[in-house]
Amino acid sequence: MSNEEKVLQEIYSSFADRLDFEDFKRKFNSLPIDKWNFARAILLYQQYVKCKDCEPNVALVVLCSCADALQLIGGEHRSRANFKEFYLKYCPLEHRKMPIEYLSREKRNSATMPFDERMLGYIYQEFRCSYIHVGIGSLEPLRERVHPFRLGKFRKEKEFFMIDLAEFPKWFEKATFESLYAFLLGKVVEEQH
What is the pTM of this model? Predict the structure, then answer.
C-alpha cells in the first residue's frame, strides 16, 4: 500500500460510518482546494480526539487549527480569517447554537450568543491565541466542586457572556467535525436572513 493510500485510509476512518471508501475517495479527489490540506485538517481533528481528555488546552488549539489547515483564504498570517471563513461557510445551521450566553439580556431578544464573525473571533482568541502566544489555557480538568463556567467580555465593549466550559469542547468538536464533513460534501451553508 502506498503512503497516499495509508493516509486516505487513516482519514477515511473518521467518515466510515457515513460514506463508503470509494465515495470518500471521489469526494476527496474533487475537493476545491489542495486535497492534502483537507487531509491535514482531518489528521488534526483526529489528534484532538486522542488528546482531549489528557491535555484539553492543547487539544482545543489543535482543533482550532483544523480550519487554518484548509487554507481557504490565501496569503500569510491569515489563520484568523481562515478560521472565521471555514465556520461561517460550512458549519451546519443545526450546530451553530453555542454553549455561550449573554448575561445582560436586554440588548438581545435571545440569551444565546450569535454565531457570527465577532464571536468566532473571540473563540479563536480565547481558545487558540491565548494558549499559543502567552500560555494561558481556558480549559483545565474540572474538579467536581468547581463551577464549570467562565465569564467572557468583548474587548472595549460592555457585553458580558458566560461560557459553559464543560459543554464548549463537546460542542466545538461536533461543530468542527460536521463542518469538515460539509466541506467534503461541498455543502456551503446558506446565510440566514
Answer: 0.86
